[in-house]
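This part of the workshop introduces the protein records we will be handling. An example says more than a description, so a record of this kind follows:
>
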Amino acid sequence: MSLTTPDATTVTGPVLTPTDPGYADELAGFNLAGVQTPDIVVGATSADDVAAAVRHARGHGLRVGVRATGHGPVIEGDGHLTITTSRMNEVIVDPAAKTARVGAGARWRDLVAATAPHGLTGLVGSSSSVGVVGYTLGGGLSPLGRQFGYAADRVRSIEVVTADGIIRTVDAGAGSDLFWALLGGRDGCGIVTSIEFDLIGLTTIYGGGIFFAGAAAEQVLHAWRRWTPTLPAEAGTSVAILRLPPDPTLPPPLQGQIAVHVRFTYTGDPAVGAQLLAPMTTAGPVLLADVDVMPVAALDAVHMDPPGPMPSIERGSALRELPAEAVDAVLEVAGPTVASPLAIVELRLLGGKLTAPQGVPNSVTARSAAYSILAIAVPAGPAAELAGPHVGAVNDAVAPWADGALLNFAGRTPAADLPTLWSPDDRDRLSAIRERHDPDGMFRRTV
């Protein structure tokens, strides 16, 4: 099928409908539970393709969604067009300026491969399979974030197609309101086709993880809670209760086990990093430990996130504090004695330079949070129908200490609650900007 817009512009990438071969493959992504069935899917190859697709949608009264790697939310319901950007994966690095410009479909692994030879890195997250653009527009929380801020804090400029089908470049000066809204608001203002951001001169870190026996979850989580306030901004950490499958590719001590995984990164002297981590090394019976100096390009090894597609349901909250009562509440609904479809329940230490914009004003949520929690369940097998309720139960358990959520971790937060992720002033500003740039609500919105 070809797609010609009212102004006779033709999309050069593939245009598919549900009956066309390749339709399902074009929409495939990381989260296999996020199935969508748009009326039309456009495989964009350039910003011009995106603009033409938006103009077509506008002329035919269709809503517009975007899909890059399939990690993020999908647009649902009838009457919509989805733009896939996986072909727009260009990465241009300027080593002298320490900047990178990436297309909407580039993954962090593409960026890391291009920057590592120059001794540079971006604020990559826990998995390099995630798309750079969507991750950054939702804030972009890196294990290095306590020292360097959110990925959104380092963005220089954004190329975006707005609802009128025009390609615009915005930054902190030109189009500053739209720039502010995209960086942290992510949805509802347009389709971002590329971003340019500052890089960091960093080649190695001291990092990795320690796996403890799941039966020791209570003592490990409480030890972690007491330990985290002692850490400097150069250190990042999270702790996760993992229900691991009997996967032969996992190390034998972890196969089919419930484990508690303490993750740690430190950007300074490795000897100092080892001293900082020392209190946690005796927190419980150790199943496996691997913490050492590693290339920044190998940061995936810290969290050991699943590398391939899988179905998942997730939801997270931001926490003002993490008292003992909050840890006990998490253990009550997700601890090792609970029969549960939860694959991961993770607590992350925030703070440091995550508490305020570091480079440019932006609308990133949960700046005042001290910790975040994320629950992920796999909706498969006999307990598939319990996945959603168990994810909800974790977030309900920490509700007394919660204050919103990180947008990228919001997951199944009820739609009515999404606007409350921002302060009333920021919420009103976001709403006004979105109304100005997309008065008909063509793009998916969170506010």
Notes: The radius of gyration is 21 Å. The mean pLDDT is 92. The domain at 204-415 is CATH 3.40.462.20 (Vanillyl-alcohol Oxidase; Chain A, domain 3). The chain has twelve helices and 18 strands.
